[in-house]
């Protein structure tokens, strides 16, 4: 069976373009007498030409479906036996086909920018058998572009900057517009640029969109910002083309094209002469139309009589010239100053040097005002010397101050007692003469730093301050003593001539040539048979044994009195007692066991005297330290409250003492011997088994001034009251709960007694009579002897 070809009919205009093709088109087959559906295979003898592309305009706005084209098969004889079927993209939803005629229509409005073409498939079927009469053919429907999109500036609006004074043609910024239409079809997407606003200052290149300056010497100080409107139009700018616009904000950036200028050529300022150094005197400013670094400037004094007296520097925030004081002003010396100050740009642009100098000058007049000044000392620090042996009232030196003002007021002097709490010095209020008010002691305070006040008589509020530095010169008023409390141990097997101790001395005095000490035994000890002393001539001395064969059982402790003298004028000396304890030593000479018993048998000392001394020692063993009764007391306020004000209250006590006859409660003798204070010593009635250290001196009595500790206590409280700012202006009674020192009898308690398991010899108790027999039986054994060297 012969089959015809499938013809594709499109718009009339397109068919005319294809007339030439019909010459080589499909040959029209002869109609077959047999029916189409013969049940036999279809045999194509000649394939007809197939048109495979349609065109349809976008954005169709008509009410009826838009005709796209026509499909036709040569097999279709118009008998209604052929049915046309359409499939693929948009089939049935966008494109429909008349199955009888093969006409294709678009039922929806198409947009090329959304989809530019559609691929579909067409087939001719036998309506009765539904079998294809032609092979399936694929074709494309292309959406043809129209100019329906205007150019758009996707990056707009724009901002840009260009330096002021830029030459013509300087590039500012490039703008770009895009057109969604088909750039390959017609001129719908060909854009040109033009400037609608911003002339004559700027121009734009039509093809590239580059904006450039159009005028020279645009000055930022005259106008710093411009608003441009740029248009982009398609169709190469022809009539009927679509257009879009954008704005471009152009800012002129600053360059240093303006010099600084003072608003005035002369400035006048007034300052008081009391203005402190480094204070701000005045501020001046040179105006500069530029901004930022281009407006930064430096100031300097180039002339005038204030060089060295004043300094000018820029304020980095305000660019002002700050004038500060460098030296102290004095109205009486100079009452006015004149300065010539220059302001110059810090960052100069070489391109604009031809415009002139980038600096300016101004004159500043400064007037000094007179103020009432405090007195001024002729020397801020007055150095004086005084001997520590100076008597009360000795004149040390003189300070001098004067009133710097023209009034020249009289001056009165006083000492700041906060710097002289002990009141060692006085000053004459009129003459400024300083003298001693108390005995000085260089060893307590070698240098006194006191503040002197100088006050104007006419105006007491004007007070000047000066320093008096008083150095106390040393005299030889202290004797040398042992450098330390020596504890000397002597081995029983010591040989004659053996050095058992090297001693040195200290002296709080400070002679100009240094110390030189002399050592010797006291006359009463010089002839002893046990020890000798050798002066080493280097401020030390060596103690040597004269013999051997020492036995601690015979005598365990020796006291050696040593005389130490200095080289001062006059020479002073003191006797210091060295304790030497006999010990049992190991082969290396290290003490292992020492007796604690002290033997004191000076020549001519009787047994009865020894018994009396021993009784006193046993009685005094339990006494407390001399000042153990002094307890710290809470400081009472200097201002008394109403309940304790002794001026307004009478306190009644109903306690009654026993009178003078009441002597049973305590020993009155102890109260009458406050001048004597005994050093506290450990008990010597028991000898420990292990080596122990004892005081290096015998138990002397120390004499102190009458009630000295009370006077010192009250004097300390008086000094506290003198410097207490809350002290009342009226005379007031101060009460102090101070107990003073402890009993000179010390403690009688036996709680401090050492162990009774000792080697102490108490056999002499049997010589005291039957009353001591029991004690002799308990403690007595072999008799020992006591000797003082």
TrEMBL record:
Keywords: Calcium, Cell adhesion, Cell junction, Cell membrane, Glycoprotein, Membrane, Metal-binding, Repeat, Signal, Transmembrane, Transmembrane helix
SMART domains listed in its UniProt record: CA
GO cellular component terms given for this protein: adherens junction; catenin complex
GO molecular function, one term: calcium ion binding
InterPro entries, per the entry: Cadherin (IPR039808), Cadherin-like_dom (IPR002126), Cadherin-like_sf (IPR015919), Cadherin_CS (IPR020894), Cadherin_Y-type_LIR (IPR000233), Catenin-bd_sf (IPR027397)
Keyword Metal-binding: yes
Any one GO biological process: homophilic cell adhesion via plasma membrane adhesion molecules
Signal peptide: 1-26
Presence of keyword GTP-binding: no
Mode of membrane association: Single-pass type I membrane protein
Localisation per UniProt entry: Cell junction, Adherens junction; Cell membrane
Residue spans crossing the bilayer: none
Domain Cadherin: 73-153, 154-262, 263-377, 378-482, 482-599
Function: Cadherins are calcium-dependent cell adhesion proteins.
Protein name as catalogued: Cadherin 7a
